[in-house]
Amino acid sequence: MTERPLYVTQPQLPPLDEFLPMLEEIWHSRQLTNGGPFHERFEQALCEYLGVPHVCLFTNATIALVTALQALRIGGEVITTPYSFVATSHALLWNGIKPVFVDVDRVTMNLDPAGIEAAITPQTTAILPVHCYGQPCDVAEIERIADTYNLRVIYDAAHAFGVRTPAGSILNHGDLSVLSFHATKVFNTFEGGAIICRDAKTKQRIDQLKNFGFVDEVTVVAPGINGKMSEFNAALGLLQLRHIDRALEVREQVAQRYRAALAGVAGLQCLPAGPSQGRNNAYFPIRVLPRYPLSRDGLYERLQESGIFARRYFYPLISSFPMYRGLPSAAAGHLPLAEQAAREVLCLPMHAELDPGDQQRVIDVLRDPLTR
Questions:
Q1: Choosing from 185, 203, 210, 228, which is the catalytic residue?
Q2: pLDDT digit string (tens) for 129-148?
Q3: Are 6 and 349 in contact (CB under 8 A)?
Q4: 1 within domain boundaries
């Protein structure tokens, strides 16, 4: 019998019997978007669950990133990471901002604060770090740098839903944080995103920008965009919140099984787990080191042959794409640790519906890569 294919992520779906009454309510109300009751309830529920003051919902995280930069009137140069999904830097280009790439920390693969400080010029206006794989950035050091040089900080927190530190939600750091609710994420609304902000005045500006810049029926104050989340997606989000804690528990169990099984495999290195309280296991990245019998790409292909579709997150680097590689900061020699991560990292299947039997298939290939 052919075994079913295994993918890195699998969207978590709410029970259909819970969703149908909500769908019927939306259907009969005829209010499908434009800040309806489900939208309002979802924003409030997220504030309570995440422990943040204000949430602005969006149709997706890319539009949210573009809008976050507009909301803070960012221009000039912004220091960011080459080791991320392309939306991080694309949002800068959409705003006419020059990305300045800085190398990453070898362990966390987040922006290296020392590199940030060295890259600051008179044209630098902000820092756009990523909590890569849900691992918190060095927020204290980034805040120190931002305060010293009078820079804004916007965190791409696409991977960081529910991540907490002893000080509280990681989303409360920086001027703004941007979440993704895409179907591949820990928490999803199929498509969606959000901006986390600190005060009501900033939330008002963001809400205006995501609705074409309208203040009222006849007044437009900014060249905004249509970034509003629909009632359908907001209802899905409310349902997902009912089940997210259990999903996070299961993901932790999956991560622990991987760590135990791979502990003695020479040449495979799991990333440090970090404190158990507040981590979300958004992905399960491993490094494939030179002493392993196969290269990273060789292992990637061997897994595919076994019906296991791992992902090389993030390869190639953003800085290698045509629209970025001409930048001085995009030179490979400037980003050795990011280049190394892009060559070595492989993300294994990680989701709340990955049962132990399917996970064992993955582990068997990793343990004995020269057999099928």
A1: 185
A2: 999 999 999 999 999 999 99
A3: yes
A4: no
